Amino acid sequence: MIKTFKRVMHNRTLMMNNFAAVFYFLGYMPYWIFLPKYIETQYRQSASASSLITGSMGLVFSAVGILLSGIVISKYKPKARSLAAWNVLVGFISVSGIISYAYLGCSDMDNKIPLLPNGDSSSE
């Protein structure tokens, strides 16, 4: 058991991939935690709608992604370095997408129109 553990600990590809996953999740966690509140304020959704979007839909797409990746990996059997390179590529795309959120926005008029409790705008 100790011999196997040493061998795993000295596998550089595996360890770097694990470190990358830890840092990726640590960086992504605040975004994921505050996403429902962000959707409520930015897109004027109710708390239940924003929780549905981030909770239920997030779980569904995560499950589909895990199942599809399992099918692809078991069918094509890529090498460990190829999988690590794929993880780096997907991580880079994900981080680029998150950075691009800073440049998205609404016009100033959209933010100045107050909403009534029933969701209608009061500018009519």
TrEMBL record:
- GO molecular-function terms, A-Z: sodium-independent organic anion transmembrane transporter activity
What's the name of its gene?
LOC114342142
Q: Which GO terms describe its cellular component?
A: basolateral plasma membrane
Q: Superkingdom of this entry's organism? A: Eukaryota
Lineage at the top is: Eukaryota, Metazoa, Ecdysozoa, Arthropoda, Hexapoda
Keyword Signal tagged: no
* Annotated Gene3D superfamilies: MFS general substrate transporter like domains
Q: Where are the transmembrane segments?
A: 21-39, 51-73, 85-104
Listed under GO biological process in this entry are: sodium-independent organic anion transport
Which protein are we looking at? Solute carrier organic anion transporter family member 1A1-like
Q: Which UniProt keywords apply?
A: Disulfide bond, Membrane, Transmembrane, Transmembrane helix
